[in-house]
Amino acid sequence: MLNSLHISITCYILLMMVPAGCSKKEPEVFFRRGERDVLKMKSIQACHGDFRIMEETDFGPFIRAKLKCIKRELRG
């Protein structure tokens, strides 16, 4: 009885430590300067579809793009 209670409490604590839902942080994509096709491909993968580029920052030969994912509602 005591052992099953200990397991239940441990499971509860582990579940409470796992954040609920997806990350709230907007994704970032790194790509080489001039390779806009790579930016588009990585952004679509990160956002699972539509996105907007909110900011671009230079990192030597690379550019970091901060994205805003656009979620579409399914109708039907």
Task: Walk me through what this model shows.
The mean pLDDT is 79. The longest helix is centred in the N-terminal third of the chain and has 16 residues, at 2-17. The chain has helices spanning 2-17, 36-47, and strands spanning 28-32, 51-59, 62-69. It has two helices and three strands, in the order H-E-H-E-E. It has 76 residues and is α+β, with helices and mostly antiparallel strands. A hairpin with a 2-residue loop joins strand 2 and strand 3. The protein has one domain (23-76). The chain has a three-stranded antiparallel β-sheet with strand order 1-3-2, covered by helices on one side. Helices cover 37% and strands 29% of the residues.
Strands, total number: 3
> Number of folding domains?
1
Radius of gyration: 20 Å
Category by helix and strand content: alpha+beta
Q: On the 0-100 scale, what is the average pLDDT?
A: 79
Largest sheet: 3 strands, antiparallel
Helix fraction bin: 25-40%
